[in-house]
Amino acid sequence: MNVLKPNQQATVYTLLERGTTQHQIARITGIDRKTVRSYQRRWLARDDRSANSPGVATGSEAVAAQTPPPRPPATTPVGAAAATSLCEPHRAFIEAQLRLKRNAVAIFQDLVDTHGFAGQYNSVKRFVAKLRRKEPEQFDRLSFMPGEEMQVDYGEGAPTLVPGSDKYRKPRLFVATLRYSRASFRCVVWKSGQQVWAELHERAFRHFGGCPQYVVLDNLKEGVLKPDLYEPELNPVYAATLKHYGVVADPARVRDPNRKGTVENAIGHTQATALKGKRFESIEAQNTFLANWERNWAAKRIHGTERRQVQAMFEEERPHLKALPLMGMQFFKQEQRTVCDDSCVRIEHSSYAARPAAIGSKVLVRIYASRIEIREFASGALLRIHAKAERPGTVVLPMQERVFNPSRETRHILRQAQAIGEQASRLCKLMFAIEGRVGQRKLWGIVGLTKHYPAQCVETACAQALAQGVYSYTHVKELTKRAFEEAATAMQAARSPEGGAPASAAAPNVPALTQQHSLIRQADEYADLFDLATTAAAAATASAEGGQS
Questions:
Q1: CATH of the domain spanning 333-401, picked from 1.20.1250, 2.100.10, 2.40.50, 3.40.50
Q2: Within 10 A of 401 (CB to CB), how many other CB atoms are there?
Q3: 149-320 — its CATH code?
Q4: Of 252, 278, 251, 263, the residue nearest 171 (C-alpha)
């Protein structure tokens, strides 16, 4: 009890003598109600002593002697009805408002405004408090089969020295508990994340020597990206880890920690018994201590509810756990990327081909230790797999998928020149060797001559240019045109009735052409074509000269 000053004591006694309630005294004087109650007991005990032993009254006692004794509390006569609250006629309205989650102040205001309520707010407050009393909530005891469920959660470990400093900080305490046997795996980490959360589950599975069917967790971001009562969205790394080990996640409902009460109790037991009042110089030292404590004490204890040893129940549960896979989980980091205009995605300063994903679309990228997986954004279907580049700036893009590349264009031109003939291929290679990539324009021009002249004429012109040492597209074009005209003249002379020199004699530099082939038409058809072209050209020339005059 707090000791009050004499003037405060006199004030309290005076108010008590006047019949003031404890609540009013506390409100007037600012003294705690518990202190007022203690002094009231003193005052009552002193009054009893004064009544039994006559004497001279002084101070507040004299005032009390002159003041008539307080009126005894009213008693309800036998058979009379108890006092009824003024709110009782409005019970239905008040209950309806409470179901709407309205408070006593709002209900009192509505009663005054719309129902003509004549009582005070305190009457409404007391009535509402009685209606709000609920029966204690009942919880069912859940029973599980061996190897059926494991519960996981985070707590706080003991203060640990932060590396590189002289400060102590509490790391995160991960606890995984098998629901049937209550055997637990405990580990502390400095930081948590998607991969750390999945790695801790993998370590727990290997600690128990097997996997349960289900794992129950709350809705922390490392495990659940989007909480939902029906279809919660799991973290992709966590989901892939559970799929690798054949375990199904069963997230608890939001704000429902009682669903995983076993691991909650395990965390509290660890903090209160093993780590209470301890400090560690490193995270490794704390993990070693937890492993020894679990083996020597926690596993050997008699469980309070089951009244059996935890280790004995775990040995009974161990054969029911699912076998571990031969290989551990290959962890990855999943990110979202946009396909650039070169049909690649940028990952860690390198470019990787993303086709058949369209340019500008979004894809999911899984970054493993030694490979890159590109998946469709909506369905997660696998599109491409690439070996991870060792050097930043690497472009992993096959040549056939590139839209344009100077070196690829050069090879394409040279292949077309080789299709024309040996001399054309030789001339184009020589011109590219002399002028480099800039000379590709001339190469395109030489290859493009085959669109207007026979390939044999282009090949003959290239042979003449090589012999003359003139490496020019314009010169090759003139030679090709001349060779074509000479070939046409020789063909006309060969089919004329007067006869004439053979084609080989008319054009000694032009090799003999193939005359008989399934793809070659008759010479008369070619002659008609040439005559038509000559007539059209002469008409165009005459028209142009007439316009100028």
A1: 2.40.50
A2: 12
A3: 3.30.420.10
A4: 278
Residue 433: pLDDT band with limits 50, 70, 90: confident
- Measured CA to CA, the distance from residue 489 to residue 506 in angstroms comes to 8
Cα distance between residue 368 and residue 308, in whole Å: 45
pLDDT at 81: 46
β-pair partners for 345: 352
Tell me the backbone φ, ψ of residue 178, rounded to 5 degrees. Answer: -75, 130
**What DSSP state is assigned to residue 275?**
S
pLDDT band at 64; cut points 50, 70, 90: very low
Phi, psi of 146 (to 5 degrees): -60, 135
Q: Are 35 and 2 in contact (CB under 8 A)?
A: yes
Which residues contact residue 75 at a Cβ distance below 8 angstroms, ignoring those fewer than 6 apart? none
Distance CA 245, CA 84 (A): 66
What pTM did the predictor assign?
A: 0.55
Helix axis angle, 6-17 relative to 22-29, nearest 10°? 140
Return the amino acid letter for 524.
Answer: D
pLDDT 10s digits, 494-546? 776 655 445 444 444 555 556 666 666 666 676 777 777 777 777 766 666 65
Residue 156, both tokens? 């706080």
Q: What is the DSSP string of 32-50?
A: -HHHHHHHHHHHHHHHHHH
What is the Cβ-side half-sphere exposure of residue 72, based on CA atoms within 13 angstroms?
2
Q: What is the CA radius of gyration of the chain?
A: 50
Give dist(CA 455, CA 452) in Å, integer.
9
Whether the per-residue pLDDT at 53 is higher than 60: the answer is no
* Whether the Cβ atoms of residue 155 and residue 329 lie closer than 8 Å to each other: no
Closest to 428 measured CA to CA, from 409, 407, 410, 443: 443
276 token code pair: 């209470």
Q: Encode pLDDT of 152-172 as tens digits.
A: 999 999 999 999 999 999 999
Strand partners, 248: 214
| Tens digit of each residue's pLDDT (9 = 90 or more) over 168-226 | 999 999 999 999 999 999 999 999 999 999 999 999 999 999 999 999 999 999 999 99
Closest to 158 (Cα-Cα) out of 173, 175, 146, 143? 173
